C-alpha cells in the first residue's frame, strides 16, 4: 500500500509523462514544428502555418486522444473491480458494441460526423440500459450474471456490426472499419471527453477506498462498512458513461482499457486511490503517443490508432509481467 | 466497553430463516451479551452459514428481527454496523494480488474518514493483529502465495484489525493445524474476556465447543434448534441426534470430549 506521499510523487511523474506526450504530439507530423514555436503557440503568440497547424489541428487531436485514453483506462480499472475480474475491459459489457451498431448505422445512412457521434452515443446508452435491466432481474446482481449478460449483448452487437459491414457499399467500408478500429482523425472538439474525464475522476476518487474493499468481495466489503449495492450501481453507471463518451469520440480503440490498469497495478500495486488517477494519466499518455505514431510512421497514410496501442502495450506488459513473476518467486 | 451493558450486542426476535426451500430456523430468540461465546453446531447443510450471514446483516431474514446493539440493521449505516460486528467468511477468493499487511489493513476501513489514509497507528494495529495470529514477518508476502491455513489466519487478523465488539465466525478453524486451532480459540476467548466482545462461531468439534464456549446452538437442519448453556445442551445423546451418529463422551478432568462410537 503506497503512502500518500509516494502516491503523489507517482502521480506527479505521470503528469509529467502526459504533458511530454502532448508536447511530442504537437511537435511531430507532416510539418515538423520546433519546440520553441510549439511553446510560443501554447502561450498564445504563435503565428503562420505552423502555429495554425498546432492550434487547430494537433492540439485538439492530442487533447482528445488524452481524454479518450484516460476515460478508457479509468473505465477498465473500475470494471475490473466491479466484476472482480482481471480480464474485464470497458468493452466487455457491450457498450462499445452498442456504440458500434449506432455509428455504423449512421455511416450507412450517410449522416455527417455529428450524426455518427449522436447515434454512437445513443447505441452505447441503449446497450448499457439493456445490460443493466437484464442483469438486475430478480434483484440479485452477481458479477457472473452481469458479466454473462454483457458478453451476450456484446455478441449480439458484434453480429449486427458484421451484418452491416457485409451489406455496406464498397466506398463506405473503409470509414466503417476505421471507426471500429478506433480513429482520432475526425477532429471534433475535445471539450466533451475532457470534461467527462474530469467528472469521472471527481466522482470516482471519493469512493476509491471502498473500491479497494469491493475488490476483496462483496460480502467482505459489506461487513467492513461499504454500502455495496449502491456502490456497484454507481460504478457501473460511471464506467459505462466514461466508455460511451470515449467510444463516441474516437471509436472502439482496443486494449487501453484492459492493459493500462494492469500496467499501473504491476508498477504501483492495487490501491484504487492511486490506481484510478494513475490509470487515467497513463492511459491518456499512451493513446497520445500511439496516435502520434499512427499519423507519422507511414505518413501521409494514417494507421488505425488501435493497432498502435496494442503494438506498444503488448511488449511493455509482457516485460512488466516477467519482472513481476521473477520478483514474486525470488 | 459496551455503553449499555443491559442491551445485548446481538439479539434476534422470533427469527425465521430459510434458504432454497429448506427451513434453517424458526422462532429463534437469541441474545448475546458482552463476554459470551456461542458455539453453533450442526450437520453439513443445516444452515449454519446461512444463519450467520443473516446475523451479519448480509441477507434478510424471512421474518423476525435481528438487532445489533439494540438497533436493526436497516437503522444502521454500513460503517456504523462495521464498527460493531465483524464477520469471518467461510470461503474467500482473492482476485488480485495484494500484500499481507495491505489485507490486514482493510479492517481499518470503518474507522477511517473518506479522505483518510491509513496512519502509522493503523499499521501498528495491523502488525499487532498479524503477530497475534502468528503471521509476524509475513507483511510483504503476496496473499496469493499463502497456504490455506495462513490465508485463514490472515482473515482472522483482518477481523482483529477491524476490532468489532461482536465476532461472527464461520468455521474459524477451517484449514488450521492443531496448534493454531487452539491459539485462535484462545484469541477469541481472550477478546471476550478482556475486551467484552461477544463471539458466535460455527464449530465442528463439540469438545472444543465445550472448552471455549459458554453457550451452544444446535441446528438440526429441519428448522428445529436447541439453544442453551453448553453444559446443558451438549451431551452424547443430543449430539448423536444432531449428527445422526452415535457418540461417546470421555471426561478428562474438567474437559469433556466426544468421539464417534
Report the strand count of chain B. 12
Fraction of helical residues of chain B: 25-40%
What is the end-to-end distance of chain B?
44 Å
**CATH H-level homologous superfamily name of the domain at 10-93 and 164-260 in chain B:** P-loop containing nucleotide triphosphate hydrolases
Subunit arrangement of the protein: heterodimer
Gross geometry of chain B: globular
Question: What percentage of the residues of chain B does DSSP assign to strands (E)?
Answer: 25-35%
CATH superfamily of chain A: ABC transporter involved in vitamin B12 uptake, BtuC
The largest sheet of chain A is:
none
Unreliable runs of chain B:
none
CATH topology of chain A: ABC transporter involved in vitamin B12 uptake, BtuC
Gyration radius of chain B (Cα, Å) is 18 Å
Low-confidence parts of chain A, pLDDT < 50 over ≥5 residues? Answer: none
Radius of gyration of chain A equals: 20 Å
Distance between the termini of chain A: 20 Å
Features:
heterodimer; A: about 325 residues; mainly alpha; ABC transporter involved in vitamin B12 uptake, BtuC; 14 helices; globular; B: about 260 residues; alpha/beta; Rossmann fold; six-stranded mixed sheet; 9 helices; 12 strands; about 35% helix
Explain this structure to me?
The complex is a heterodimer of chains A (330) and B (261). With 330 residues, chain A is mostly helical. Helix content of chain A is 78%, strand content 0%. Chain A has one domain (65-329): Orthogonal Bundle (ABC transporter involved in vitamin B12 uptake, BtuC). Chain A has helices at 4-27, 35-43, 48-82, 95-108, 113-136, 143-167, 170-181, 191-204, 208-214, 218-223, 228-250, 256-268, 272-296, 305-329. In chain A, helix 1 (4-27) packs antiparallel against helix 3 (48-82), helix 3 runs antiparallel to helix 11 (228-250) and helix 3 (48-82) crosses helix 12 (256-268). A six-stranded mixed sheet of chain B has the order 6-7-8-3-9-10, sandwiched between helices. In chain B, strands 2-1-4-5 form a four-stranded antiparallel sheet, with helices on one face. A two-stranded antiparallel sheet of chain B has the order 11-12. Chain B is globular. Chain B has 261 residues and is an alpha/beta fold. In chain B, helix 4 crosses helix 5. In chain B, strand 4 and strand 5 form a beta hairpin. Chain B has nine helices and twelve strands. The interface between A and B is medium-sized, with 28 and 39 residues.
Amino acid at each position: 500500500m503506497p503512502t500518500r506521499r509516494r502516491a503523489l510523487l507517482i502521480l506527479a511523474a505521470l503528469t509529467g509523462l502526459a504533458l511530454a506526450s502532448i508536447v511530442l504530439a504537437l511537435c511531430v507530423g507532416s510539418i515538423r514544428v520546433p519546440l520553441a514555436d510549439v511553446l510560443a503557440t501554447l502561450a498564445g503568440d504563435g503565428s503562420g502555418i505552423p502555429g495554425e497547424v498546432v492550434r487547430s489541428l494537433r492540439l485538439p487531436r492530442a487533447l482528445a486522444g488524452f481524454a479518450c485514453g484516460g476515460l478508457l483506462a479509468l473505465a477498465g480499472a473500475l470494471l475490473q473491480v466491479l466484476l472482480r475480474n482481471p480480464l474485464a475491459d470497458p468493452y466487455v459489457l457491450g457498450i462499445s458494441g452498442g456504440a458500434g451498431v449506432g455509428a455504423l448505422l449512421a455511416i450507412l445512412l450517410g449522416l455527417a460526423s455529428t450524426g455518427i457521434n449522436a447515434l454512437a452515443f445513443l447505441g452505447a446508452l441503449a446497450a448499457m440500459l439493456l445490460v443493466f435491466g437484464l442483469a438486475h432481474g430478480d434483484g440479485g446482481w452477481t458479477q457472473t450474471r452481469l458479466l454473462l449478460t454483457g458478453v451476450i449483448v456484446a455478441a449480439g452487437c458484434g453480429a449486427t456490426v458484421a451484418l452491416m459491414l457485409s451489406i455496406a457499399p464498397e466506398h463506405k467500408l473503409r470509414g466503417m472499419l476505421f471507426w471500429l478500429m478506433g480513429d482520432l482523425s475526425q477532429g471534433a472538439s475535445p471539450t466533451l471527453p475532457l470534461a467527462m474525464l474530469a467528472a469521472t475522476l471527481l466522482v470516482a476518487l471519493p469512493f476509491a477506498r471502498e473500491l479497494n474493499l469491493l475488490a476483496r468481495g462483496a460480502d467482505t466489503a459489506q461487513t467492513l462498512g461499504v454500502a455495496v449495492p449502491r456502490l456497484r450501481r454507481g460504478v457501473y453507471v460511471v464506467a459505462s458513461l466514461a466508455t460511451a463518451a470515449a467510444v463516441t469520440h474516437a471509436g472502439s480503440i482496443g486494449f487501453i482499457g484492459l492493459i493500462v490498469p494492469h500496467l499501473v497495478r504491476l508498477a504501483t500495486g492495487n490501491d484504487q486511490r492511486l490506481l484510478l488517477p494513475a490509470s487515467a494519466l497513463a492511459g491518456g499518455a499512451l493513446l497520445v503517443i500511439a496516435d502520434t505514431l499512427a499519423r507519422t510512421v507511414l505518413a501521409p497514410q494514417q494507421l488505425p490508432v488501435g493497432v498502435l496501442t496494442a503494438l506498444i502495450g503488448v511488449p511493455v506488459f509482457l516485460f512488466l509481467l516477467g519482472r513481476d513473476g521473477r520478483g514474486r518467486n525470488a | 466497553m459496551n455503553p449499555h451493558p443491559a442491551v445485548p450486542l446481538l439479539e434476534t426476535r422470533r427469527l425465521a430463516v430459510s434458504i432454497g426451500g429448506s427451513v434453517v430456523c424458526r422462532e429463534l430468540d437469541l441474545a448475546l451479551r458482552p463476554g459470551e461465546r456461542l458455539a453453533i453446531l450442526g450437520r453439513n447443510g443445516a444452515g449454519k452459514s446461512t444463519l450467520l450471514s443473516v446475523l451479519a446483516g448480509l441477507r434478510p431474514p424471512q421474518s423476525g428481527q435481528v438487532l445489533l446493539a439494540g438497533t436493526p440493521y436497516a437503522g444502521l449505516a454500513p460503517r456504523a454496523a462495521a464498527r460493531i460486528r465483524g464477520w469471518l467468511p467461510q470461503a474467500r477468493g482473492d482476485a488480485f494480488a495484494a500484500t499481507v499487511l495491505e489485507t490486514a489493513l482493510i479492517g481499518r476501513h470503518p474507522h477511517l474518514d473518506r479522505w483518510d489514509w491509513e496512519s502509522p497507528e493503523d499499521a501498528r494495529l495491523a502488525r499487532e493483529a498479524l503477530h497475534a495470529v502468528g503471521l509476524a514477518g509475513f507483511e510483504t508476502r503476496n496473499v496469493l502465495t499463502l497456504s490455506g491455513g495462513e490465508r485463514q489466519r490472515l482473515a482472522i487478523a483482518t477481523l482483529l484489525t477491524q476490532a468489532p465488539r461482536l465476532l461472527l465466525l464461520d468455521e474459524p478453524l477451517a484449514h488450521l493445524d492443531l496448534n493454531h486451532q487452539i491459539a485462535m480459540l484462545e484469541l477469541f476467548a481472550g477478546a471476550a474476556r478482556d475486551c467484552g466482545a461477544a463471539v458466535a462461531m460455527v464449530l465442528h468439534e463439540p469438545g472444543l465447543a465445550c472448552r471455549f464456549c459458554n453457550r451452544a446452538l444446535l441446528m438440526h437442519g429441519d428448522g428445529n434448534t436447541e439453544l442453551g448453556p453448553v453444559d446443558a445442551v451438549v451431551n452424547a445423546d443430543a449430539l448423536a441426534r444432531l449428527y445422526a451418529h452415535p457418540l461417546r463422551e470421555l471426561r478428562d478432568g474438567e474437559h469433556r470430549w466426544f468421539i464417534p462410537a
